[in-house]
Amino acid sequence: MYKKTTLPSGLRVLTETMPAVRSASIGIWADVGSSLEVPQQRGISHLVEHMLFKGTQRRTAREIAEAMDGVGGNLNAFTDKETTCYYAKVIDKHVPLAMDVLADMFLHSTFDPTELAKEQKVVLEEIKMYEDSPDELIHDLFLQTMWRGSHLGDPTIGFVDTVTALAPNDLRAHMARHYAPNSVVVAAAGNVEHERFVELVAECFASFAGTSDAFQPDAPLATPATLVRQKDSEQAYVVMGSRGLGARDERRYALSVLDTLLGGGMSSRLFQEIREKRGLVYTVYSFQAAYREAGLFGIYAGTSPENVQACVDVIGEQLGALRDVRVGEDELRLAKEHIKGSLTLALESTSSRMIRLGRNEFTLGRQMTPEEIESRIDAVSAEQITELANELFTPEQLGLCVLGPVDEAAIAWNRDAA
């Protein structure tokens, strides 16, 4: 299903053909994100992403938007801590148009100073939006607390002072340093034919040349601590967690099973204990923040301020139970089937498959078939779950972040009791 061609320039082209669909998702991936930025330019990768939509030598920003809207397609992008992706989803017959628009943005954006000034204001509004979205802000606070002082810990979007200080030449220099054929992947999933798509990419990227330094993943040590930030809100937002595993760690399959049985669905331990039995929350779940050489594991809960202590206590109890009591076979099997079912459902989307192509190429250097992933999930044992829980969830490794109208002195959290 997967095919890969490396062009003479070093540009990699990946496809996954899905002949049963009429659409295709195309992504241009750059091996750069906020973890490669110097602190004084935090947010530059994200700002570059925004500016590539603001006009090229051939198209204005409006013409870029109209090109995709005119064929019913979707055009978007995202920046994370290790990659940036510009993507489009269109009907298969419009793949050449989508590729032309994406390549034009990627190679020929003008970084007009007037447009940059406007887009910096847009990003500042985005920063304010996050500040007004406590359920998202708490995750940033958790990363900053657990990876204090690191590139991975700082928010991808940047800070007000770093974003406003950036000039057009800073953005051009950033692209020149990190956007090169050896650090870029073009991926497509859907009703595409590999050889024809390779020809199309080669044509659109004929002028793309140069090299960039190899990506050096950040690998910060965890810095567990307690952070309570006051915020005038109806709810309090809680994240408790520890260091996790990097995306290349072979034990990641065991951690995915642990994640699922702890907080991955309505039958998970946290959902049953905190919501169903006690009615303390509407939302509770566990999650992983996994990057190439480092990871964090966390548990999120949104609750009334007076229930924070009870939530913290139950989370600590559940982590302790994973350390001390072997997982039963029925529960283990249910978690595995949940993961495999979710994987199968995700594979029905061309966008999900395109994103898998890009992420796997950068993270693993190869593609993993669904069958391979399922076999690795099936191989996870109860003993592996216990070993991981005892390695990751020791009291001294646990951090706690609370956002809301909560007094830190009112939280009696004893790590030794967790």
The biggest beta sheet reads: 6 strands, mixed
Instruction: Specify the CATH class of the largest domain.
Output: Alpha Beta
- Provide mean pLDDT, rounded: 95
> What is the CA–CA distance across the termini?
46 Å
Q: Identify the CATH architecture of the largest domain.
A: 2-Layer Sandwich
Number of strands: 11
Structural features, described:
By secondary structure, the chain is α+β, with helices and mostly antiparallel strands. The chain has two domains: 2-204, Metalloenzyme, LuxS/M16 peptidase-like (Cytochrome Bc1 Complex, Chain A, domain 1), CATH 3.30.830; 226-417, 2-Layer Sandwich (Cytochrome Bc1 Complex, Chain A, domain 1). Helices cover 43% and strands 19% of the residues. It has 15 helices and eleven strands. The chain has helices spanning 44-51, 61-69, 95-108, 113-131, 134-146, 160-164, 168-178, 194-204, 252-263, 269-276, 308-324, 329-346, 350-363, 370-378, 382-392; strands spanning 2-6, 12-17, 23-30, 74-79, 84-91, 184-190, 226-230, 236-243, 281-290, 295-303, 399-404. Helix 10 runs antiparallel to helix 11 (308-324). The mean pLDDT is 95.
